[in-house]
Amino acid sequence: MALRKSLLATAILAATVGLTGCGGSSSDNNTVTTPETPAPTTPSNKAPTITVETASVMEDTLGAEITGITIADDNDDAAALTFTVSDGRFEVVEGKLKLKATNALNFEQEADQKVSLTVTATDSAGEKVEQAIEVAITDMQPTAGKNLYAFENNGNSSVAYSGQTSRHAAMAEAKSLLGKLTTDVSVEDRNTTLTVAEGFILAQDESFHGSAFTFTEGKGVAQSNLGEISSKKTVAGEGGKIAGSDASPMNKTWNDGTSFVGWNEFGTFDKTPNGLVEYYFDLIKKQVETANSGTKIFAEHNEGSVELTKLYVTPEGLDLAQLIQKHLNGAVSLSQGADDYMDELLFNNPNGNTEITPAQNAEVDADKNYTDMEHKWDEAYGYFGAAINYLEYSDDEIAGKGGRDAFKGGYNDYDGKDGIDLKSEYNFGNSGNAAKRDRGTKSNTNPTDFSAAAQIAFINGRAIINKNVGTNIDQWSSEDQAELKEYRDQALLYWEKSIAATVVHYINDTISHEDGDLKDIASGTYTADQFYAVAKHWSEMKGFALNSQFNPHSPITDEKFKEIHELMGDAPTLTAAGVDAYITNLEKARDIIAEAYKFDADNVTNW
Question: Is the pTM above the cut of 0.70?
Answer without folding.
Answer: yes
